[in-house]
Specification:
The complex is a heterodimer. By secondary structure, chain A is an alpha/beta fold. Helix content of chain A is 36%, strand content 26%. Chain A contains eight helices and eight strands; from the N terminus they run H-E-H-E-H-E-E-E-H-E-H-E-H-E-H-H. In chain A, strand 1, helix 2 and strand 2 form a beta-alpha-beta unit. Classes of the chains: A alpha/beta, B alpha+beta.
């Protein structure tokens, strides 16, 4: 009887629990992920290089990616780690370190020394960004737009005076929309890891974390960041490497 | 010197004075503005405050124009620092401060990434002293006591007055060096509805049932009786369903903190010794000399000892029988606001950092005159607790400096760290955040005046009981690596029906496995040296922790009045 139960249980387990194929789900997030290029893509390719398993990449919206990681073994995606998510996934990271800052037009005399100074103004943030909750939590007034492309255009047209955005993304859209911006204040730093399904074998998680540690220590990560620092002309970014 | 040369020298001095004085005057004016408008009350006189501020302005000169990055957890005290003190510091010294605020869990992730991956994320961290065991072993954290005497001597405030810091013992390694400087402290204390406990009808009814007074519980037996009394006997007050206990049980990192912070120490799992038990601490980890040697009873630890199983059994029973049913699915943040809603009679431990939120006018737990209907008092202890042991948890968010940060940046950050704990600003900061760090502040006349509105916070910090509530100590060699053990195992009792013994066995094995990983890793001072496994009886028959199972884990309940509850530790 015991053997039959074990056999039935084995049949019930999804076949890919033993597989070593990894599905990496990515959402378009320029300039970190832009088609098959971007800082995140460069780093991810290097982490998985030489690994003993094949990596299949799929482009899916973030909410769909989170849904699938919860259900499917050996699936992963770069998502923000939080206390609420801590127990739901296994983690490899950080693969990216991002910074959010408050920006104004470069010709605006506005002066923000500390976050509280910004509470006299409405701050533009992109939909789905964690910055909206972060700022609201402190009592800031915010205005949400669909994306930062739109926010940069609103800043250019002087619709509002402050824009909270990732400093690389802000620089990217400012350049794209021919807007001169001034960084007023850094407000938060985020470590972005890869979230894996909770049943992913520890051997995979440990291997990838070790690989990543090596990349931080031997300067590989810095090399990638430097490439984008020059390309986007943002000298002040990535001070930590 | 010829007359000609003298004239040139006088001219030069005059020229320098003209150049320097507007700067000094400006800096003095700015400091005076802040002292007059914001930094009051203070335990210093205005003259002393201005002298301290002048020192900061002068010491900061080589670092003017720099931008320094620091991070801390999200509590009122740090918001005050980030939004008011950082601005004052910038105006007085010319050093720009980016003071980020985030969850404590995120602070730990970031300092861990900084230490283990060599990423210089911040110039200094305000990090809980629970990581003291990690920091002093890592070799990557600057011993501040050395820094103050040597490389940082020129940027160390002469009036810092280290002896005035209440929590300095928490931030020392076994080598007695200071590795962190306390910035804010809050404590886990027993919380109860003093108005209900004072009602003659309830007092009479309790005495009839249990044979002793309804008062502040000294031991867990009394706490359990009171929980049962309110949930099962009183049931409703003013038509509202009430509960004799509040806790939470959701699988979340915060359930881990609740256990690693306080449950086992209150139960009496560890050995005697302050700030932490030696050789076995409240995590159940044994050290020999200063090296951790195991957490399971078979290796001489106490993480799965009878006392630890007793602690988890009581937690599970009280949560399921006496707390509101929804508490099982709550985490720390969700459960934190429940006592303020007015239907909880007592909570075995509650974080005093939330005092300000619990005295908001209009709450069901606040009287019309603004005084609280509740009190905080020393928490009751479990059956295994003995005199000389710690009694509960105290959080000491402390300034931490890492070696990998360039010296010039460290020096500028150290100036900001000292500024936000200086006597000029510390009493004002204490009033705003209610997380006192200085003896001089807690003993001030102003705090005496404020005491009736703070539900016992001032009384606790003025009593010797404050020395018995301590953070995680030096036995824990790598806090970020070991702390997930708690949330990975404890909730299994609530969610999956695992027995407390099975859960604590799993916890002890998890800790031993991670200790083994550290043992196999890079050797460090006071590094792990794992004991070989023995029969549990070998250790249980020895004196101290791990302790043998008591024949009676529920002795008679003891209660005392509020005043006496503070005095019994003096």
């Amino acid at each position: 009887m015991k053997k039959i139960i074990i056999l039935l249980l084995l049949l019930y387990i999804p076949a890919n629990i033993f597989a070593k194929d990894i599905t990496l789900m990515l959402s378009e997030f320029p300039p970190y992920i832009e088609g098959n290029k971007g800082l995140a893509i460069d780093i991810l390719n290097e982490i998985f290089k030489g690994a003993d398993y094949t990596v299949k990449t799929e482009k899916v919206p973030l909410s769909r990616a989170i849904y699938r990681i919860k259900r499917n073994i050996n699936t992963c995606a770069p998502i923000q780690r939080s206390q609420e998510r801590e127990t739901l996934f296994k983690w490899v990271g950080p693969i990216l370190i991002t910074q959010t800052a408050l920006f104004s037009r470069s010709d605006d005399p506005i002066k923000i020394d500390v976050l509280k100074d910004a509470f006299n103004y409405k701050i533009m943030v992109a939909r789905g960004s964690a910055d909206a909750d972060y700022l609201k939590g402190f009592g800031a007034k915010i205005e949400i737009a669909n994306n930062d492309d739109y926010n940069s255009k609103k800043l250019k047209r002087k619709r509002l005076r402050l824009w909270a955005a990732d400093i690389i993304i802000a620089s990217y859209y400012a350049k794209k929309n021919d807007l001169k911006i001034k960084k007023q204040l850094s407000i938060s730093t985020t470590l972005v890891p890869l979230a894996f399904n909770i049943n992913t074998p520890d051997s995979i998680i440990n291997h990838l974390n070790e690989q990543l540690n090596k990349m931080y220590k031997d300067g590989t990560i810095k090399k990638f960041y430097d490439k984008y620092r020059k390309r986007l002309n943002i000298e002040e970014a990535f001070y930590f490497l | 010197m010829t007359t000609h040369k003298k004239i040139w020298l006088y001219c030069l001095i005059l020229f320098l004075l003209i150049q320097i004085s507007p700067d000094i005057a400006k800096s003095n004016n700015v400091a005076e503005k802040w002292v007059n408008q914001e930094f009051k009350p203070s335990t210093l006189t205005k003259k002393e405050q201005l002298k301290e501020m002048r020192w900061f302005a002068k010491a900061a000169k080589p670092y003017r124009g720099m931008t320094i990055r620091v991070i801390s957890e999200r509590i009122n005290t740090h918001w005050y620092e980030a939004s008011v003190l950082a601005k004052a510091f910038r105006e007085i010294t010319g050093i720009n401060i980016v003071h980020e605020i985030t969850g404590e869990d995120d602070v730990i992730k970031k300092i861990d990434a900084h230490l283990k991956k060599g990423i210089n994320l911040y110039d200094m961290y305000i990090n809980d002293s629970d990581l003291i065991g990690t920091h002093f072993r890592s070799g990557k954290v600057v011993a501040l006591s050395d820094f103050m005497k040597r490389k940082g001597r020129d940027v160390t405030l002469p009036t810092l007055d280290l002896k005035d810091f209440m929590g300095l013992e928490f931030t020392k390694g076994p080598d007695k060096k200071i590795y962190q400087l306390p910035d804010q402290q809050f404590v886990n204390l027993y919380w109860y509805r003093a108005d209900w406990f004072a009602r003659p009808d309830l007092k009479k009814r309790f005495k009839n049932i249990y044979g002793y007074e309804l008062n502040v519980p000294v031991n867990w037996s009394a706490y359990e009786d009171i929980a049962e009394f309110f949930t099962d006997y009183v049931k409703r007050i003013d038509g509202v369903k009430i509960y004799g206990h509040m806790d939470y049980g959701k699988r979340d990192p915060s359930i881990g903190w609740r256990f690693s912070d306080a449950w086992l120490s209150m139960a009496g799992v560890g050995d005697k010794g302050l700030p932490n038990g030696l050789p076995v601490d409240e995590w159940g980890i044994r050290v020999e000399k200063c090296s951790p040697v195991g957490a399971s009873v078979s290796r001489g630890g106490a993480a799965n000892s009878p006392a630890a199983i007793y602690a988890l059994t009581k937690y599970d029973k009280w949560l399921k029988r006496y707390a509101p049913p929804e508490a099982r699915k709550m985490n720390f943040s969700q459960a934190g606001s429940v006592p303020a809603k007015g239907y909880i009679a007592q909570q075995i431990f509650w974080y005093s950092a939330f005092t300000a939120d619990m005295i908001t006018p209009g709450l069901p737990v606040v009287n019309k005159d603004g005084t609280p209907k509740w009190r905080m008092a020393p928490s009751p202890h479990g059956a295994y607790w003995e005199k000389g042991m710690k009694m509960g948890y105290q959080d000491a968010g402390s300034w931490t400096m890492l070696r990998s940060v360039p010296l010039k940046r460290r020096k500028a950050a150290w100036l900001y760290a000292q500024f936000v704990v200086s006597k000029t600003v510390s009493l004002r900061k204490t009033i705003v955040g209610l997380t006192p760090i200085r003896i001089s502040d807690i003993n001030s006349k102003y705090m005496t005046k404020l005491a009736p509105k703070l539900g016992g916070l001032v009384e606790f910090y003025r009593s010797k009981a404050r020395l018995l509530w301590t953070p995680t100590g030096t036995n824990v060699p790598d806090y970020p690596l070991l702390s997930p053990a708690w949330w990975k195992t404890v909730p299994k009792v609530v969610e999956e029906g695992l027995s407390p013994k099975e859960a604590m066995d799993e916890l002890a094995n998890y800790l031993d496995d991670k200790l083994y990983k550290l043992y196999r890793g890079k050797k460090s001072k006071c590094g792990v040296k794992l004991n070989k496994k023995r029969k549990p009886s070998y250790w249980l028959n020895k004196k101290g922790a791990p302790k043998q199972k008591l024949a009676n884990e529920k002795p008679k309940g003891i209660t005392v009045n509020y005043k006496k509850s503070l005095e019994i530790y003096d």
